[in-house]
């Protein structure tokens, strides 16, 4: 029998780790991970099952069939049965994620104890689901409930697990609309984002960024996080690392020069930040790419 694996930043349930859930084979894997720095996540697939990943915090870029999909705080990414996928460059960025692997409803009569009509309808909607979906932050609750039921071997476990798995799927298939931002403010934020992206080496303070938009520092921080799913500092660091990857590909590129060009005072600090987000040192990346 498989065991529940739990560490300070990782928790995994694998069917059928809990006897009370032996009647819920549809939930193949369920887990939580917190990555403090870029970590390996290579090509893999799940035959006859879907994988759903909810980004609780941070940003993750995924690769499926050569296409890149960026997901950030408050978004779901998913793959369909049999699709090969991995984190970009085979390293998942610093983030916190919930994830679950669910058997394909199309191949499993009685799936989650649903009638065939509902089971087939869910299959159809999953086939049409966008690769990345924004959901309400409430989706954390059913994930936390699932973990509690499994860890504590609670009563009516199989019934409640089915309920919360369906709750998560229904939230993905009927996502909440993003909080509306006034058009003039949205335009100002888009212009600021373009300004930041054009010169990622610039050292901005939150106060300076807020002044560009014409709002308070606290209001700006909330707006930025709503739009980009991360803090301004993390967003800018990731931009610098993307630019660094481009520069390091150039023939004759020098790590120290790239560090200085991107506004870092020392190549050592630059290398530390680079490895945190990319998973390799600048020199390793240059050889890898």
Automatic annotation (TrEMBL):
Bilayer-spanning residue ranges: none
MF terms (GO), sorted A to Z: DNA-binding transcription factor activity; sequence-specific DNA binding
Origin superkingdom: Bacteria
Keywords (A to Z) from UniProt: Activator, DNA-binding, Transcription, Transcription regulation
PROSITE patterns named among the record's database cross-references: HTH_ARAC_FAMILY_1, HTH_ARAC_FAMILY_2
Pfam family, one: HTH_18
Database matches in PANTHER family: ARAC SUBFAMILY, HTH-TYPE TRANSCRIPTIONAL ACTIVATOR RHAS-RELATED
Protein name: Uncharacterized protein
Organism: Paenibacillus baekrokdamisoli
């Amino acid at each position: 029998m498989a065991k529940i694996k739990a560490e300070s930043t990782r928790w995994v349930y694998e069917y059928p780790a809990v006897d009370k859930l032996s009647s819920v084979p549809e939930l193949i894997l369920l887990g939580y991970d917190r990555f403090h720095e870029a970590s390996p996540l290579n090509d893999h697939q799940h035959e006859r099952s879907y994988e759903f990943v909810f980004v609780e915090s941070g940003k993750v870029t995924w690769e499926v069939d050569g296409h890149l999909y960026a997901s950030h705080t408050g978004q779901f990414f998913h793959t369909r049965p049999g699709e090969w996928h991995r984190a970009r460059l085979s390293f998942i960025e610093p983030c916190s994620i919930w994830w679950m692997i669910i058997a394909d409803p199309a191949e499993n009569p009685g799936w989650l104890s649903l009638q065939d009509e509902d089971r087939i309808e869910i299959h159809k909607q999953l086939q049409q689901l966008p690769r990345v979906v924004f959901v309400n932050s409430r989706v954390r609750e059913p994930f936390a409930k699932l973990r509690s039921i499994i860890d504590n071997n609670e009563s009516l476990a199989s019934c409640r697990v089915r309920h919360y798995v369906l709750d998560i799927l229904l939230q993905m298939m009927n996502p909440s609309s993003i909080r509306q931002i006034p058009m003039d403010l949205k335009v100002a934020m888009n212009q600021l984002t373009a300004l930041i992206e054009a010169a990622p080496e610039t050292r901005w303070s939150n106060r300076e960024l807020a002044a560009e938009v014409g709002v308070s520092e606290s209001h700006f921080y909330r707006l930025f996080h709503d739009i980009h799913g991360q803090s301004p500092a993390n967003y800018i660091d990731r931009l610098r690392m993307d630019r660094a990857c481009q520069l390091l590909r150039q023939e004759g590129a020098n790590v120290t020069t790239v560090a200085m060009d991107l506004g870092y005072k020392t190549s050592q600090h630059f290398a530390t930040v680079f490895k945190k987000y990319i998973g390799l040192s600048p020199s390793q990346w240059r050889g890898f790419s």
